[in-house]
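Check these lines:
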Amino acid sequence: MSEILLTAFVGGVFGASLGALWAFCLCGLATMLGCVLVLSGGSDFLLLQVGLGPIFGPHAGGFLSGVIAASYASARGKHPGGSGKDILSPLMGTSWDVLAVGGAAAAAGALLASAIGQVPILREFDHLGLAIIVATFIGRGLFHREGPFGKKDSIAKHGLLGTDNYALSWVGWMSPPPLLLMIGAGAGGLSGSVAKMAVDALAPLAASGAVSPAAAGAVPVIFGWAFSAVMLTCLQFGQGSTQKTPVTHCMALLGALTYLYTGSLIGAVIGGIFGAFLQELCARLFVNHASDHLDPPAAGIAFGTLILNVIFKPGLLGLSALF
């Protein structure tokens, strides 16, 4: 365990130096390349240990480290962009302690994800998403003295779910409900289609022992998520209207997961729409009024996975037959 925590720490220092969003794009790239390797009958190391594991997973150096480091830097007046919500700016030019906080956050995220997987109720959540949420809430409380919902004066002025006509919104260009409906349907259906084809491609590889059961189970769920993460390079490097890319990794993952439970591409579309509105709800609850960033897609994935598991998982409600 000490070796894993050290690995997560150094990955977190690196991720914080890049900034959270660019680190996440690289995490998505590693995950997508890992999926390609598994689909080719190759090693699952890049997928399970780098992209989704302690080396550079989103709950470690591949995202969380940059979020917590940005929160700390803004509270100490060291953030180059001035705001803890700015997860695009690299933090290399700040100070050693900012990077160290990023490393500590990554180690804590790796530890939390492992612990969540051991608790019967909590393991029905997405482990990595829940670890990101818990760690971010802790960082917000420590550095900004704010609760999960953010600043009380902003909530009093605009209402907890209010957006001030999208002026407060996390990604206001995507927040209007008709847009959420369409992009959720598109991202969920596309990810479900990829999941369907991945299952078919992996079945003979898993049967022959060429790929591990863990990798064969992960690729159909995560490929669309990884593709969506790589797509956020458009947001990272864009300016003005060119930056208005959709943020779809929650929709993609929940769409794929719904397909795997139901065997229905219509189910995948519904899952994607569910993910779109769930992440918008999480943004309104946990980001719009706050001084720092809490990732709405990570929250949507964590809670959405719990809800889908309860609805569809055998031994719980087991309603897959409805599709």
Remarks:
- The mean pLDDT is 96.
- Residues 2-322 form one domain.
